[in-house]
Design brief:
Helices cover about 25% and strands about 10% of the residues. With about 190 residues, the chain is an alpha/beta fold. The chain has one domain. Strands 1-2-3-4 form a 4-stranded mixed β-sheet, covered by helices on one side. It is globular, with a radius of gyration of 17 Å. Keywords: Signal.
Length: about 190
């Protein structure tokens, strides 16, 4: 009801991904209450209520972690209008950035390529290559190296279906050509122009 246009009551279309503020990330530093993923999941009740995710195309493969009993709270795969696929992932805010999530991503992108035959957009929070901080900087809050390690090989493998990736954490605009195999080419000034 909150996310409807007042005039015609149509639902406002939103594509959201769990972020650090949604899971208590702003309180992580030195706060043992948010040290476990199950604690962050409990803290993210607002996100889960207002942005429920449902994976209508792919049945998630749960991680080996005991807390991963409902992946649809932060993971989502859907095909929109038969012309576009959308996959939302979790960069470690509630669910681990691990092999279980890589299996989910692989299943989602395989479905879009082989069954739905649609181009895919991938959405997640922590950037693999940040635009306003060092790309190898990692902490308990943000780990871009882990994002590259888990999602990078799959983005390379499925480059025939993934046409766009949205990363959100740094609150800064970034646009780049496709980066394959962690090959980064630094550009300074006008980039030779």
């Amino acid at each position: 009801e909150v996310l409807r246009y007042p005039g015609d009551q149509c639902v406002v279309p939103l594509a959201v991904a769990m972020g650090n503020h949604d899971a208590g990330g702003y309180q992580w530093a030195g706060a043992s209450a948010y040290a476990t993923q199950s604690a962050r999941a409990a803290h993210s009740a607002f996100y889960s209520k207002y942005y429920p995710q449902s994976s209508v195309a792919v049945t998630p493969t749960p991680s080996e972690d005991a807390h991963a009993n409902d992946w649809t709270s932060t993971l989502n795969t859907r095909v929109i209008g038969g012309v576009l696929g959308w996959t939302t992932l979790d960069t470690g805010h509630v669910f681990a950035l691990d092999a279980g999530q890589a299996r989910y991503m692989r299943a989602s992108l395989t479905y879009m390529r082989d069954t739905a035959r649609v181009p895919a957009i991938v959405l997640y929070h922590v950037p693999s290559y940040p635009s306003v901080r060092q790309s190898d900087a990692s902490s308990k809050k943000v780990d871009s190296a882990a994002v590259r390690q888990v999602f990078g090989p799959l983005l390379d493998e499925f480059d025939d279906v993934v046409t766009l990736v949205f990363e959100n954490h740094d609150h800064a605009y970034k646009r780049t050509h496709r980066i394959r195999g962690e090959a980064v080419v630094p550009v300074t000034g006008a980039g030779g122009r």
